[in-house]
Amino acid sequence: MSEERKIPGRAGAGGANLAPLAKYKLVFLGDQSVGKTSIITRFMYDNFDRHYQATIGIDFLSKTMYLEDRTVRLQLWDTAGQERFRSLIPSYIRDSSVAVVVYDVSNKASFTNTSKWVEDVRAERGNDVVICLVGNKTDLGNDKRQVSTEEGEEKAKKDGLMFMECSAKAGYNVKSLFRKLATALPGSPDNASKAAPGASNTIDIKVSATPANLDEANKCGC
Ligand SMILES: Nc1nc2c(ncn2[C@@H]2O[C@H](COP(=O)(O)OP(=O)(O)OP(=O)(O)O)[C@@H](O)[C@H]2O)c(=O)[nH]1
Ligand SMILES: [Mg+2]
């Protein structure tokens, strides 16, 4: 199923001035149950499931984002937080130009453990990677919070990471997160000079079919 919307300022079908489709791999990392799958599901389908279904191994999804100046295909690798799948993860980190390290703002241990996830990314990619630290579940409110926004920001600053808080449940900041990631992608003109304030630079248009398993994902041309 795909949804099409008109994009102002771009050539129509067969237009010669469309930039070639650039593909980027993004890997989602973080402890079990922090909300990696929920963030991706909110972004892809704009819905939320409150029942927990642990990711088994790695899931693959892809989505085309039409930015003002170019089109990008995001390939999203949703890893499992469960310990027993850890050995699978390094090869996906190695292949990715963006790592999204998620923690749950109501779970201090998940925040502490982001250091380990960041170390794993640095071990595979050095500085040749964009890392975004994401505090999820902000909808739970201040009484449930174990990690303040300031703590998250401080850690991100110290470790040279991008930072964002969001709620997959409420849909808060999820689109903004992907918009922010898109502007930080290697090769993005916005990476060097930021877009004009207030400019909307993202329109989500096409959602590809989701391969049922990894083998299919690796075979597909997306
Ligand atoms: N309140 C609240 N609950 C959330 C939010 N995001 C996810 N959850 C819930 O947290 C649980 C775990 O979410 P998942 O998205 O499956 O977490 P995960 O990080 O993919 O977990 P693994 O696949 O095991 O690594 C589920 O019950 C979700 O409904 C959120 O923003 N707010
Ligand atoms: Mg999951």
From TrEMBL:
Q: List the molecular function annotations (GO) for this entry.
A: GTP binding; GTPase activity
Q: Which family does it belong to?
A: Belongs to the small GTPase superfamily. Rab family.
Query: Where does the signal peptide begin and end?
Result: none
Note whether Secreted occurs among the keywords.
no
Protein's name according to its UniProt entry: Ras-related protein Rab-6
Annotated GO biological process = protein transport
Keywords, A to Z?
Answer: GTP-binding, Lipoprotein, Nucleotide-binding, Prenylation, Protein transport, Transport
Q: Organism, per UniProt? A: Cylindrotheca closterium
Question: Per its UniProt record, what InterPro entries does this chain match?
Answer: P-loop_NTPase (IPR027417), Rab (IPR050227), Small_GTP-bd (IPR005225), Small_GTPase (IPR001806)
